[in-house]
User: Fold Outer dense fiber protein 2 from Pluvianellus socialis.
Amino acid sequence: QEEKKQLTLKVEELERKLETTSAQNIEFLQVIAKREESIHQCQLRLEEKTRECSSLARQLEMAIEDAKRQVEQTRERAASRERAAQSKVLDLETQLSRNKTELNQLRRSKDDAERRYESRLQDLKDRLEQSESTNRSMQNYVQFLKSSYANVF
Assistant:
């Protein structure tokens, strides 16, 4: 009976330990369930963040491509404007050269005309002087004739 009593005590003690262990197992299972739920929630958030990152990466790639296109278009417009400006500069330089040539020709023509007019003016002055000289000579001759006739008559 003593043995039976000890075995009963041992069984009761083991049953208490079993209950305690069962309670701990239940607690551990609850903790594990909570952790698994937490892990599941974290995985869901991770998947959501991954999708969001993928979406943002695509948007970034599209924005980069758009920026590259805009840069290329801007470069093309700038190159086109530069070519147009260079063409206009060449046209203006050509026009300036033509205008300088024309101005030089006009200056030469003006100088030639001035020389001709100066020459003609000098010629006219000389002829006027000659004419005045002839006039004076004739007036002197007429005066001489008048005085001669006056002396004769």
Remarks:
- Residues 26 and 71 are 65 Å apart (CA to CA).
- The helical segments are 2-152.
- The radius of gyration is 63 Å.
